[in-house]
Sequence to fold (97 residues):
Amino acid sequence: MKRRTKVSLEQLLGMEKGRIQLFNKQFYWIARGVAYHQVVLYEQGVPVYQTVGERQTLESLFDRIKFVFSPSGKVIARRIAHEEPLLLGKKEWEDFS
Fold:
């Protein structure tokens, strides 16, 4: 059985930059503890990310996070269900820290 590491809010706050996806399929760009809501628009088949709305704190979004992405777009942490912890695989730890 694989052992997974739980990701705490403090660890996520220490992340320089990345992206998160919530259970309602909204994306946020994160930088040093602040989250900016993003929408994807396609211009001639190329995805263009635009920031909309006001910034939010990660504390307000932490319980609703489904995926955490590295700046390169790789999934580094995931939450299986709403009440489950945010889990990090062993291989992804280098990308996260």
